[in-house]
Amino acid sequence: MAIKPAPARLVIVFGDQLNHDAALLHLLGSRDTVLMMEVAQESRHVPSHAQRTALFLSAMRHFADELIKRKHAVRYINLDDPKNTGSFETEIARAVAALKPSEIVCVQPGEWRVLEMLQRVASSKGIALTVLPDDHFLTTPAEFATWAKDRSALTMEFFYREQRRKLGYLMEGSGKSAKPVGGEWNFDKENRLPFGKGGPSPRPRAPITFKPDKITLAVLAAMKSVLPELPGKSQSFAWPVTRKQALAALDDFITHRLAKFGPFEDAMWTSEPILYHSALSSSLNLKLINPKECCEQAIAAYNAGKAPLQSVEAFIRQLIGWREFMRGVYWLEGATYANRNGLDQRGELPNFYWSGDTDMACMKACVGEVLDTGYGHHIQRLMVTGNFALISGVHPRAVSDWYLGMFVDGVDWVTLPNALGMVMHADRRPGAAKGVTGLVGTKPYAASGKYIQRMSNYCAGCRYDPGERAGEKACPVTVFYWDFLIRTRKQLAGNQRMAMIYKNVDRMTPQVMTQVTVDAGLLRKKLGIDGASTKG
Q1: How far apart are the C-alpha atoms of 527 and 252, rounded to whole Å?
Q2: DSSP string of 461-513?
Q3: Residue 435 — very low, low, confident or very high, per pLDDT cuts 50/70/90?
Q4: pLDDT level of residue 175 (50, 70, 90 thresholds)
Q5: 171 by DSSP, 3-state: which?
Q6: N vs C: which end of the chain shows fewer Cβ within 10 Å?
Q7: In the sheet that 128-132 helps form, which strands lie side by side, from edge to edge?
Q8: Closest Cα to residue 440, out of 153, 34, 52?
C-alpha cells in the first residue's frame, strides 16, 4: 500500500516572531511552506515610524534568508512586489488559494487584531487554524490568568517575586525558604538618582550601532516608494536586524552600561537618549534574543563582580517582571481592553508629538529623539511624553496608538498595557469600585515640571519656570498637573495613594483653583488638545 505524503501546511511567521529556536520551526516538514509578508497596512493602521517599519522589514528579510539557507520553503511577499495586495488578510487568502494547504499554523500573534484576522481568514476559507503557544516568553497567558484569579488588584511586585522564585534568579536557597540575594526584592530606593549639574560622569559610552547592509538599504528604498508618508527620520537607522547583531548589542550593554543602569535608570539628560539603558527592547520584541539569555548574562556579570546587585536586579525586573506582567494583562483583559478610558479623557494629541515643534524644552528633547531614532527610554516615555498626555487630558487611545507606531519596539501586547495602564491610568475594569481607576498602575504617574527639573537638565534652558503655575513663565507641565488633580478629584478620591497629594489641592483657595482651570483650558485650546492646534 502506498504511503500518503504528509499534508502540506501554511506556516505563518510574523515580523515579531523571528526566533530561530522557536518550537514551530522545529516542526516544519518538507512539504510545509513558511509565509512571511511585508504589507503596507501594518505601517498605516497606526502611523508607523520609518525606523520601526525599516527594522521589522529588514529583520524579516534577514530571517527569511536564513530559513532558505536551512532548506525551508519560504513564500516571501516584498513590500514593493507589484502583486502585493497590502494586507495580511488578502495575502494569506492568496497563499491559501495558490498552495492549497491542509491547515494554517502559526505562533500566537502579539496582537488581538491579528489573531482575529487569522480566525476570519481560516473561517472564510474553510481551513483549520492551529495557534501554538509562544515559547519565547517565561509565562503563558493561562499561567498568568491562574495567578491573577480572584485578586482584587494585579500588583506587579507580587508577580515579580513569584517569577524570581520560579526561575531562581538572584535567589539564595530553594523552595519556600528561598530568599532574595541581598535581602531585598528590589532596590528602587537606591535607583532614582539624578545626575549632578555636570551630567553623567563619565559620559556613557555610545551603544554599538550597525551600518545598513544591502538588505536594509533595499528595504529603505522600497519604503521610499511605497510608504513615503511615514513619520520620523530614517537617515540614522542603525538598529540590530539579525540575531548576531542583537547578541553583540546585548554584550555591549552588559560590558559597558549595565553597571550604572540601576542608580540612574530614572535620570534624563539632553542629547543622551540612551544613557545607561540597554536599548535591547526592539531585539527582544522581534525575538532576535530572548529574556533568559539576557538575565543569565546579567547575573554572570554580577557573579564576576562586574555589575552591582542594584543594577542587575533592576534589569532582571524589567524582563521577568514588567515585560511578562504586561503581556499577561494584555491577554487576560481581552480584545476590548484597548477601548477603556477610566478617567474619561477626550483630548486630541498635540501636533508637536509628530513634529517636535514646541518651546517646552523637555518635550522638544524627548519627542525630537523619538522622531530621530524611534527610541526613548522608559522614564522619558512615562514621565515626559506620557505624563504630558495624561495631565493635559488626551484620549488614551490616541496615546497608545502613538506609542505603538512611533517606537521601534512597538508591539501591541506590550505597548497597550504600558500606555493605557501605566501612562494614562485608564484601564479601569468595568464595574470596578469607586477610586479604583487603574488595573496596571496603583496610582496615576502624574508629575509637575519640578519632577522633570529634578531628574534632568531639560529645564535649564527652557523659557518656562517649572515652579510657576501662573503668569507668562508658567510651565505648561505644572499648569496641567494641578489642573489634572482638580479635574480628577472625584474620580481619584478613593485612591489611598493619592490622599497626601490631594491635601495640597485642598489648601488651594477657590480663586486659585479657578485660575488654574482657566489657564489650563486656554493652554488646551492653544495646543489643539481641545480643537484646532497651533504651535506648542
Answers
A1: 41
A2: G-SSBTT-SSSTTB-HHHHHHHHHHHHTHHHHTT-GGGHHHHHHHHTS-HHHH
A3: low
A4: confident
A5: strand
A6: N
A7: 73-77, 33-37, 9-12, 103-107, 128-132
A8: 153
pLDDT averaged over every residue in the chain? 95
Cell of 336: 476590548
Q: Is the pLDDT of residue 283 over 80?
A: yes
Q: pLDDT by residue (tens digit) across 38-91?
A: 999 999 999 999 999 999 999 999 999 999 999 999 999 999 999 999 999 999
Q: What is the arithmetic mean of pLDDT over 415-442? A: 87
Q: State the alpha helices, DSSP H only, in 257-308.
A: 258-261, 281-286, 291-303
pTM for the whole structure: 0.95
Q: Which residues pair with 74 in a beta bridge?
A: 34
Task: Determine the Cα–Cα distance for residues 428 and 492; give it in Å rounded to an integer.
Answer: 12
Burial class (CB in 10 A: 0-12, 13-18, 19+), 236: exposed
Task: Give the least confident one: 132-141, 249-258, 421-430, 527-536.
Answer: 527-536
Which residue did the predictor score with more confidence, 151 or 164? 164
Cβ contact 12:105 at 8 Å? yes
Could you give the CA distance from residue 428 to residue 430 in angstroms, rounded to a whole number?
A: 6
- Average pLDDT rounded to a whole number, residues 338-357: 96
Sorted by sequence, the CB contacts under 8 Å of residue 26 that are 6+ apart come out as: none
**45 burial class (0-12, 13-18, 19+ CB within 10 angstroms)?**
middle
Helix ranges, 257-351 (H): 258-261, 281-286, 291-303, 309-316, 324-333
Burial 152-161 (b: 16+ CB within 10 A, else e): eebebeebbe
pLDDT recorded at residue 6: 57
- In the chain, DSSP finds a helix count (H) and a strand count (E) of 24, 7
Q: How far apart are CA 407 and CA 282, in angstroms?
A: 9
Burial (CB count within 10 angstroms: exposed 0-12, middle 13-18, buried 19+), residue 453: buried
Strands (E), 61-154: 73-77, 103-107, 128-132
C-alpha cell at 80: 514593493
Q: In terms of C-beta density within 10 A (0-12 exposed, 13-18 middle, 19 or more buried), how is residue 151 classed?
A: exposed
Q: What whole-number percentage of the chain has pLDDT above 90?
A: 88
Q: In this predicted structure, what is the pLDDT of residue 436?
A: 64
Q: Which residue is it, cell 519627542?
A: 367
State the cell numbers at 216: 536594509
